[in-house]
Design a protein that fits this description.
This protein is mainly alpha-helical. The chain has a domain at about 5-75. It is about 60% helix and about 0% strand. It is rod-shaped, with a radius of gyration of 46 Å. The N and C termini lie far apart (about 95 Å).
Length: about 130
């Protein structure tokens, strides 16, 4: 790639001079002017820096382009919203059969209640509801 074509690629960044333009620039020599050899050496250093800058900028632009392409390839359309999970309708609570329908006498019921309270004492430390 020539230095001139590099400049065309970077003009969008607002860079006015290429390394070749700096190299080709001629200055008029006047009495008591600058030492032309010293000016040329300094301009040669600037030209080398410009060449390095051009290379770095082009490499970074290429990397940006590649990363954007990779990012675009990774972007997937959003997943559809999850569907609500159907909640089964609870069946009506069936009433427990009464003690009298089971054939328990009031004395048997009282015995069961006593045992239940004793069990609660052991499990919870005191009877519930009293």
């Amino acid at each position: 790639m020539s230095k001139g074509s590099r400049m065309e690629n970077l003009s969008h960044l607002g860079i006015d001079l290429s390394a070749q333009e700096i190299h080709d620039q001629e200055f008029n020599v006047r009495l008591r002017g600058y030492d032309t050899d010293e000016v040329n050496e300094y301009l040669d250093r600037i030209i080398r820096d410009y060449d390095i800058f051009y290379t770095i900028i082009q490499d970074q632009e290429r990397q940006i382009k590649d990363l954007k392409a990779r990012l675009d390839a990774r972007v997937t359309p959003p997943a559809p919203a999850p569907q609500p999970i159907p909640v089964p309708t609870p069946s009506p609570i069936q009433q427990a059969p009464s003690a009298s329908s089971r054939g328990l006498s009031p004395l048997e019921l009282e015995d069961i209640m006593y045992r239940l309270r004793e069990l609660e004492k052991k499990v919870f430390g005191s009877p519930r509801g009293l």
